[in-house]
């Protein structure tokens, strides 16, 4: 730890940092932590947070006491957060020179906290490491830009671009439509470069003012960190330009939802080759088994890919989102697409995760599903041909309630991710759902108030 702090001290000094944001990503991907003067950060070397943070919902509430006290100490003690020297990022938008440092979490005995998403991903990566396999991933993040509004009851409106007009109609892949927000994206790219984020292509997606940023392929933990940081970065760039950026899965009625498409392949550490490909260039048995694992276990772990009530609004017919776990070559109507690429770059694109999901948990769950398929030698279905939206052979749970029930009954979640994490995640999401059910929607008032 001292060596880590010496390295961090040198970096902080060389970059003239005066403040440090010490952060941990919670179940919903929200940055929790403390802002510390740099001298205090260096002298203390670690941060402490109350255990209650681990069971905090997106609304700031906590799970019921009967679950809370089976998972955490009744005294609401602290857990220990230690900085990761490989997860240090400058914050270009702050007035003071500030660094954001992602921390790992431990109990007082030095054991990794099972409830933190970053540790969940590390646990899955350890499974691969034990078999001399190295996963490689590339996330694609979709999001919407919208006009600022102080009233959450009002629908989102498209923002005004450089031309002084709002976007009309569908502008998929339009360069001019994307350039309407060029000043915002220039800042975004500059800030991402400053932070070392591996972003690549910017695309205008199908929805009005809907965009997509692609990340370059790389290490799953590093890219999970970078997606976590990117979300904050984009939101700050948008606010600077008087608009908002949202990663809600389905923020606008009758517009396409936003996904976190995940490309994944597995490499042999010893040979440096893609285990999805045989020596003769054909698809390997491990490739098909990986697909089969995704097919069998994504429906059982769907809340890790679609964690909110809003996530399931994306899974509707005629919304451009895949509605099943079919697989097919170059087929974007399938939940699992096999891109057309060279044999050594053979990979699977998981198109089911929503942009609102926690990047650590999405990548952990997607890799875990494929891993189980490989170690259990599962067999996939035949590849789908043509339009697959209406295929009923591999349905997904259609509500958060039913998805949480499926996850609760999935033995593999508890076996590989821990009983404690499974209980905690499900409890947090059920608490959020109970809060949601208390809200009376505008639809109910519009169609039921005077008619029933």
From TrEMBL:
<keyword id="KW-0460">Magnesium</keyword>
<dbReference type="InterPro" id="IPR036651">
    <property type="entry name" value="Gln_synt_N_sf"/>
</dbReference>
<dbReference type="InterPro" id="IPR014746">
    <property type="entry name" value="Gln_synth/guanido_kin_cat_dom"/>
</dbReference>
<dbReference type="InterPro" id="IPR008146">
    <property type="entry name" value="Gln_synth_cat_dom"/>
</dbReference>
<dbReference type="InterPro" id="IPR027303">
    <property type="entry name" value="Gln_synth_gly_rich_site"/>
</dbReference>
<keyword id="KW-0067">ATP-binding</keyword>
<protein>
    <submittedName>
        <fullName>Glutamine synthetase family protein</fullName>
    </submittedName>
</protein>
<feature type="domain" description="GS catalytic">
    <location>
        <begin position="117"/>
        <end position="452"/>
    </location>
</feature>
<dbReference type="GO" id="GO:0004356">
    <property type="term" value="F:glutamine synthetase activity"/>
</dbReference>
<keyword id="KW-0436">Ligase</keyword>
<dbReference type="GO" id="GO:0006598">
    <property type="term" value="P:polyamine catabolic process"/>
</dbReference>
<dbReference type="GO" id="GO:0006542">
    <property type="term" value="P:glutamine biosynthetic process"/>
</dbReference>
<keyword id="KW-0547">Nucleotide-binding</keyword>
<dbReference type="GO" id="GO:0005524">
    <property type="term" value="F:ATP binding"/>
</dbReference>
<comment type="similarity">
    <text>Belongs to the glutamine synthetase family.</text>
</comment>
<dbReference type="Pfam" id="PF00120">
    <property type="entry name" value="Gln-synt_C"/>
</dbReference>
């Amino acid at each position: 730890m001292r060596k880590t702090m010496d390295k961090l001290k040198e970096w902080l000094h060389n970059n003239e940092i005066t403040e440090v944001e010490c952060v941990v990503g919670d179940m919903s991907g929200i940055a929790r932590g403390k802002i510390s003067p740099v001298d205090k950060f260096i002298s203390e070397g670690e941060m402490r947070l109350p255990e209650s943070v681990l069971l905090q919902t997106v609304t700031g509430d906590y799970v019921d006491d009967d679950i809370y006290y089976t998972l955490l100490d009744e005294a609401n003690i602290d857990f220990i957060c230690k900085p990761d020297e490989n997860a240090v990022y400058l914050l270009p938008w702050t007035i003071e020179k500030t660094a954001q440092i992602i921390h790992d979490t431990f109990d007082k005995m030095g054991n990794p906290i099972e409830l933190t998403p970053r540790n969940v991903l590390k646990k899955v990566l350890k499974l691969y490491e034990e078999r001399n396999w190295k996963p490689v991933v590339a996330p694609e993040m979709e999001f919407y830009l919208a006009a600022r509004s102080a009233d959450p009851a009002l629908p989102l409106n498209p923002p005004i671009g450089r031309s002084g007009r709002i976007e009309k109609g569908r502008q998929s892949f339009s360069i001019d439509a994307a350039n309407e927000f060029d000043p915002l994206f220039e800042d975004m790219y500059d800030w991402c470069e400053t932070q070392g984020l591996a972003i690549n292509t910017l695309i205008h997606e199908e929805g009005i003012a809907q965009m997509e940023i692609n990340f370059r392929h790389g290490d799953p933990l590093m890219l999970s960190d970078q997606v976590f940081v990117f979300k904050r970065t984009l939101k700050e760039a948008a606010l600077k330009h008087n608009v908002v950026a949202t990663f809600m899965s389905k923020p606008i009625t009758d517009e396409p939802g936003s996904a976190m498409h995940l490309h994944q392949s597995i490499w042999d550490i010893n040979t440096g080759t893609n285990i999805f490909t045989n020596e003769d260039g054909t698809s390997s048995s491990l490739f098909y088994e990986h697909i089969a694992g995704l097919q069998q276990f994504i429906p059982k772990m769907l809340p890790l890919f679609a964690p909110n009530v809003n996530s399931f609004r994306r899974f509707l017919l005629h919304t451009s989102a895949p509605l099943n776990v079919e697989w097919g070559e170059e087929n974007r109507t399938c939940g699992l697409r096999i891109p057309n690429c060279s044999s050594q770059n053979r990979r699977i694109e998981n198109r089911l995760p929503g942009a609102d999901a926690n990047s650590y948990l999405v990548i952990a769950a997607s890799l875990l599903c494929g891993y189980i398929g490989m170690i259990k030698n599962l067999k996939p279905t035949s590849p789908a041909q043509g339009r697959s939206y209406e295929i009923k052979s591999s349905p997904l749970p259609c509500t958060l309630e039913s998805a949480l029930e499926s996850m609760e009954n999935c033995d593999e979640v508890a076996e590989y991710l821990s009983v404690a994490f499974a209980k905690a995640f499900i409890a947090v999401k059920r608490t959020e759902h109970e809060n949601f059910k208390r809200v009376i929607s505008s639809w109910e008032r519009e169609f039921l108030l005077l008619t029933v």
